[in-house]
Amino acid sequence: GVVMAPPSGGAGGGGLVALPELDRSASGSWVYPRLREPRAYQVEAVRSCLFRNTIVCLPTGLGKTLVAAVVMQNYRRWFPEGIVLFLAPTKPLVAQQVTACTEALGLPPDEVAEVCGDVPLARRRRLYGSQARLFFATPQTVENDVEGGALRAERVVLLVVDEA
């Protein structure tokens, strides 16, 4: 069956909208990349993030970005039509996280998009409707896009917030 929800704010009428559907065959497992030897605390952080709202607080250099990337990759598998958002407070930090996450997991370029305020609204609208599933943005851009109807909040299945 299809899960339905009321529409988010922004442009559009009333009625119910379909939420991204869980891929039941993919959701029976989660993957952790074998790029390097897994650290037990990172695996535990990933496990927590996959199934609960979690704040990961680690010193610089201990793998918060890897944890986020692995969680994002799994949600991408579990919800093939859903959108995963990674928010960072500044455009340079957004760009840094795009590079770090895509390199950490070898993500397909057509599934990753940077949608900061300098990307024209018409292009952001197209990106939200494209094959891209992992979006990196500033909070203000996402807020504007949801309020303006460019991004339907119902499609968001995971929100990662990076605090500077």
From TrEMBL:
**Entry-linked InterPro entries:** DEAD/DEAH_box_helicase_dom (IPR011545), Helicase_ATP-bd (IPR014001), P-loop_NTPase (IPR027417)
Per the record's keyword annotation, is Metal-binding included, yes or no?
no
User: What is a GO molecular function of this protein?
Assistant: four-way junction DNA binding
Record domain Helicase ATP-binding: where: 45-164
> Which keywords does UniProt give here?
ATP-binding, Helicase, Hydrolase, Nucleotide-binding
Does the record's keyword annotation contain Transmembrane? no
Q: Which GO terms describe its biological process?
A: double-strand break repair via synthesis-dependent strand annealing; interstrand cross-link repair
What Gene3D superfamilies does this protein map onto? Answer: P-loop containing nucleotide triphosphate hydrolases (3.40.50.300)
Q: What name appears for this protein in its UniProt entry?
A: Helicase ATP-binding domain-containing protein
Taxonomic source organism: Phaeomonas parva
